[in-house]
Amino acid sequence: MRVLTRIVAIVLLVLGPSALAWGPNGHAIVADIAEAHLTTNAAQQVKQLLALEGKSSLDQIASWADDYRPTHPETGPWHFVDIPLQAAGFDESRDCAGGNCVVDKIVTFAELLKNPSASDAERLQALKFVVHFVGDVHQPLHCEDDNDKGGNGVKITFYGRSTNFHAIWDEGIIEEATGLRTPMPGYRIEPVAVRAEAETLDKTVTASEAAHWASPGMLSHLPETVIAWANESHGLAQAAYKAKGDDTHLGDTYEKEEWPVVEIQLERAGIRLAELLNELLP
Questions:
Q1: pTM of the complete model
Q2: pLDDT band at residue 15, thresholds of 50, 70 and 90?
Q3: Which of 163, 164, 146, 140 is nearest to 154 (CA)?
């Protein structure tokens, strides 16, 4: 196990933040916002499942799916959906062959989490995937492709540092806007600082916004709801590329323009994840 842990850590270091979706900070923020909006029953059931592995909060497992991915490469396509950048929106046959995309996997693991016949271990793993994938589908560049691997193939500098377009959306904008960092090894978070940022963001969400983003009854039309989330992110990805234009040297101006987009997507993901878990764990 110790050898396996070292191998995974090395793989993560090689891949860098561009392989980590929102990055640990973003995923933890989504989880913390969601946890603040769980019902008593849902929170109790979440605690019981997390306790199986000695965990006590959703932010502790929010990036588990990224840690799991290097040793289970078949799960890689589950983190995103390659909607062509210029397309109007999601098309199941074109964008999610065999159900291997984030849109279908959110539904699959939601159903498993809700299934009382599944084992506790199965339901815990489903919870970990649901928490992570709801975050993923709200990262705009996880819902587009322009023959550039979702922006991973677009080389840029950000504040003078060599990186790629996907990576600054995963973590770069969040880091610069909030001051949060992911210290080595393994891109771990600083929980106190992340929870404080999540609380700050959550306080800006109005009741009307929360109701608009995640209305009750989500489970009755979950596939259509998740598609709507993906299409929303896809539209934001189109705007992100347009704002970048041909510029390969991004910094303060781009960060300040796009941080409000990142901010609202983290908030939406947290509120929507909470409603989904509340309905899955009544």
A1: 0.91
A2: very low
A3: 164
